[in-house]
Amino acid sequence: MLLVTSGEVVEAYIERCKQVNPLINAIVQDRFEEALDEAREVDRLISLGLTTEEEMEENTPLLGVPVTVKESIAVKGLTNQAGRVFKTPQIAKSDAPVVEQIKRYGGIVLLVSNTPELCLMWETYNNVTGQTRNPYDLKRTPGGSSGGEAALLASGASLLGLTSDIGGSSRLPAMFSGIWGHKPTPYAVSFKGHHPTSDFPKWGDFFTIAPMTRYAKDLPLLLRCMVDPNGPKLTLEKEVTMSGIRFFFMDNDGPSGMMRPLSRDLHAAINRVANDFNAKRVNIRKMKWSLDISLSAMLTMKNIETIYHKTEEGQRPKTVCTETVKYFFGCSDSILPSVIFGHLQNFMKIIPNSRHKHLATIIEALKTEFKELLGNDGVFLYPTFPNTAHQHYRIYHKLLEPMYMAIFNTLGLPVTNCMIGLDRRRLPMGIQVVANPGQDHLCLAVAREIEKRYGGWVRPPSEESSRRPE
Q1: Structural fold of domain 6-454
Q2: Is 70 part of the annotated catalytic residue set?
Q3: Active site (annotated) includes residue 256
Q4: Candidates 169, 177, 263, 296; catalytic one
Q5: pTM exceeds 0.85, yes or no
Q6: Pick the catalytic residue: 70, 103, 183, 318?
Q7: C-alpha distances in angstroms, 371 versus 404, 413, 438?
């Protein structure tokens, strides 16, 4: 049997990172030397034979395995400012709880990866690190806000990644980059140690730190190592057969017509998956409220960290009007989504409270409908996004479409993006698999089956043949 040391694995991934990053621009800061030292120490301890393979598998299942982390998640000693421009770099003084757990289970952190400013965009660019590019086509976006992680995973420069998700931030990059991203059941994974954050009591209902992997079969292992021991219990080891799962699906947002329909290739692919799994087509009519209820729920949360809410020590607080004027005169340090977020929050304040209460009743009714439909043995297949990766900055005329994903943050349901093949442009396509709270194992089991049936990750074009950025 060929034995590979942790040092060899870590060194190989470091070399791959150095090879692809000039093309995709996904790395904010690395700790390559420290990672190599940690890998050599792992090899030394293994050589002593003090623990059995069974003990290592149980207690340190990630022993010696390299892991990459979204820069908005705190890794001690590395930058942690979520793409914001500061005069003094903001360095994490301690690890986020989920990073602590990854290290405790033996994982070796290689780097922190790029994110849009304060994770407020479905494309990955900021005024600190710049723009991250999709390895399948460098003129296209890998999505956001976890685009740095997705680009590294898709290009073979990472295997396991820690990301975050409040409106599709782990799932859209996973789809655009042909890999796997899972939004766990709320509070199953600690959300502490992340920027942006909030002290709003229901923040964790919507926001979570999330696993992203190149292969579906690795999602349960990574999630197991991320699960908060004080959070809801997930039965990730539970045996699941496809014959024991009931499948349902929709390929649009119901009767609203607000979000654009699927591209021809995606429509065909999603219906093929639904047919292959004998999924029953349903019409959940309240899904037409996805945009209204998601915006109402998320934009009315108080004390969310924004460019207006938290400023660098010694700097004056920013105001919405002043920052808007500065942006349009090219004088702002922030990107457009961060600037207009304040306007969206102010707009929500003028909407009558009775309207928000009405939308809250629709949220509860939808939760009940999914609870009754799916039970503890059902999954719901639904589009991740209506088309494959677009060229940079074109998200601005597609700002409604992320509601295909954000609705499940609003409802608090676990959901996995699954790779289901390439379209005619050789760009990855994806589908969401949704289950009831606590039934993450159903999503992950279906994800593994989809990987078996449709092949999963496909190597992007070679660096030589990729179109370089202009």
Answers
A1: Amidase signature (AS) enzymes (3.90.1300)
A2: yes
A3: no
A4: 169
A5: yes
A6: 70
A7: 19, 10, 11
